[in-house]
Amino acid sequence: MEPLQIKDSRRIFTAVTAFWATEGLQTVLSDTSTIAAASDAESHANGRPLAVDMIDRRTREWRRRRELIAVFTAALGDAVVSPILAAKIETAAELAVVAEMTRANFLAGAGATADDVVRCSNQAARAERALGIAARNSKPAKPSLDAYLSGNAAA
Question: For the chain, which terminus, N or C, has the lower number of CB atoms within 10 Å?
Fold first, then answer.
């Protein structure tokens, strides 16, 4: 299974738009509760969201996602990772991977625009900031007063 490319997502968007135009909103709304119940049951049958099961785990994107999850978890330090925090970490990692893929597609001239790169990068940065990693690691460690005074005395 090959990862989705920008041009594939545009084709999907076109197909969905055509579906809405031909089927009409009323037909879809009548089945909304049935679809939502089936989707909810399917996505939580194994305890994982449906989207995670749809991703091919043999790709470099999946390996990069796992790597970023480990990096973000380690950056949080001794904090206990609750299920909500774990979901935020996964989201931040996935958005970072999407931003990297979009940037690579843009640099390769594969259909991504500069606007796509900026939007994806900003979304990934917001997700990382929501974890609080930047706030924890932004200030360099300051020497203690004794270390500072002993350093000045030696000079």
Answer: C
